[in-house]
């Protein structure tokens, strides 16, 4: 199974950030996406769906137990409407962090992009 690595686009306190291009979605089950060294509580995913006729589903996978003590709550599945944009997060590390410190994301289609935005701790 191939894994596409995502990286953060850092939001700027008291500043601005041009909209990043994002990473093209890859579809599960043969592919998934990973955000290594994640800060779930400071993470916001911006997902776009470029398919004008079909919604897609983005799934943030439940974490490993341990360290994710609330992983039993399961995955978070979010529907992105046709031609839509959805913001997902911030997320709870106690539910979603993997044992290597990453977040795992799956998509039902390849029609769109995902951007991992990192919210600054202090402004």
Give the SSE map.
Layout (H helix, E strand, L loop, with lengths): L1 E5 L1 E3 L12 E2 L6 E5 L7 E7 L6 E5 L15 E5 L4 E4 L4 H4 L6 E5 L4 E7 L5
Parallel strand pairs: 1-4, 2-10
Antiparallel strand pairs: 3-10, 4-9, 5-8, 5-10, 6-7, 6-9
Instruction: Work out the oligomeric state of the chains in this entry.
Output: single chain
Give the beta-strand count: 10
Overall shape: globular
Q: What do the pLDDT scores average to?
A: 93
Structural class label: mainly beta
Helix content: under 10%
Biggest sheet character = 5 strands, mixed
Distance between the ends: 39 Å
The CATH level-2 architecture is identified as Sandwich
- Look up the CATH topology: Hypothetical Protein Tm1070, Chain: A
Beta-strand share of residues: 35-45%
> What is the rounded Rg?
14 Å
Structural summary, described in words:
This protein has 123 residues and is mainly beta. 3% of the residues lie in helices and 39% in strands. It contains one helix and ten strands; from the N terminus they run ββββββββαββ. The protein has one helix at 93-96; strands at 2-6, 8-10, 23-24, 31-35, 43-49, 56-60, 76-80, 85-88, 103-107, 112-118. The radius of gyration is 14 Å and the shape is globular. The N and C termini lie far apart (39 Å).
